[in-house]
C-alpha cells in the first residue's frame, strides 16, 4: 500500500491554518499543524477534522505545540512569524522573524532529514536563506514561496484589467519578494499574447506598481493583519508540484549559484519543481532594464541576508 504523504505546517495563524486546509482539501496527505500557542493548533486541527465529513476529506490533521509528531515529514511549510502591520515593510520584520524561523528549522529539520522545506514567512527570501543555513539542507530542498504569490497577483490584475479569465493569464515576477520585485510584462501573456500587445505602457506600469504593492494594499485595508488566502493557495500549489512530482515551472525563491549574475543568495526565478524540490533553474535572457531591476532587487536581499548574521 502506498504511504500517505506527511505535511508539516509550522504556524497556525491565518496563513498556516489556511494552508493546512488547502493541502487537506487537495488530498495531498496528512497534516501536522504546529504552533507555540497552546490550544490554537489543536483547536484548528479539530475544527478541520470536523469539516471532513461535510467536504469528504480523507486526510487527517493533528495540532501540536511540539515537533515530535512532525517526524518523517515529506514536506515542511514554514509560515510562523509576525505579520506585517500598516506602514511596515517586509524588511521591518527581519530581526524578529529570523529568531522564530531559525528555531523552527533547528527543531524540525533533524526530525525530517529528507523533507523539502517551503518558506512563507517574511521577509521571505531572507528567511529561506536562514532556513538553509540552520537546517543544513541541500539548497535544492529549501524554497521560498514569494514568486508564485507575486505572479498570481500580477495575473489577477491583468485579468481584471482586460476582463478575461484568470486561467488565460500567465505572468512572471522575478527578484526578491519585496518592493523591488521585477514583474516582466513581455513574458506575461493572455492565451499566449503578450500583454504589451494588449495594454498601453501606462496601464502596464500601473499593474506592475500594484503588483509590487500587492501585500501592502491588503495590509492597509485589513489594518490588523496581512494577506493569507493567496499566500496559502500559492504554498499549496508548490506543495502539489513537489508531492505529486509534477515538474511544474513556477517562479520561486531559490539559492542562486551564478544564474542571472548572482551567487550565494535567494531570489525569485523560474524553476522546475518536482519530488526532489528544485530540479532545474531556468535562465531567460533579460533586457538591460530588466537585468538592472533584478540586480537592484538582489542587492536588497543581500543586505537583508547580511543583517541576519548567518
CATH class of the largest domain: Alpha Beta
CATH fold label of the largest domain: L-2-Hydroxyisocaproate Dehydrogenase, Chain A, domain 2
Uncertain segments: none
Mean pLDDT across all residues, rounded?
Answer: 95
**CATH A-level architecture of the largest domain:** Alpha-Beta Complex
Helix % is 40-55%
Quaternary arrangement of the chains shown? single chain
Would you count the extended β strands for me? 14
Number of helices: 9
Would you tell me the structural class of the helices and strands?
alpha/beta
Determine Rg (CA atoms, Å): 19 Å
Estimate nothing, just give the exact number of structural domains: 2
Beta-strand percentage?
Answer: 15-25%
Strands of the widest sheet, in order across it, are 3-2-1-4-5-6
Main sheet properties: 6 strands, parallel
Order of helices and strands: EHEHEEHEHEHEEEEEHHHEEEH
* Global geometry: globular
**End-to-end gap:** 43 Å
| Name given to the CATH homologous superfamily of the largest domain | Lactate dehydrogenase/glycoside hydrolase, family 4, C-terminal
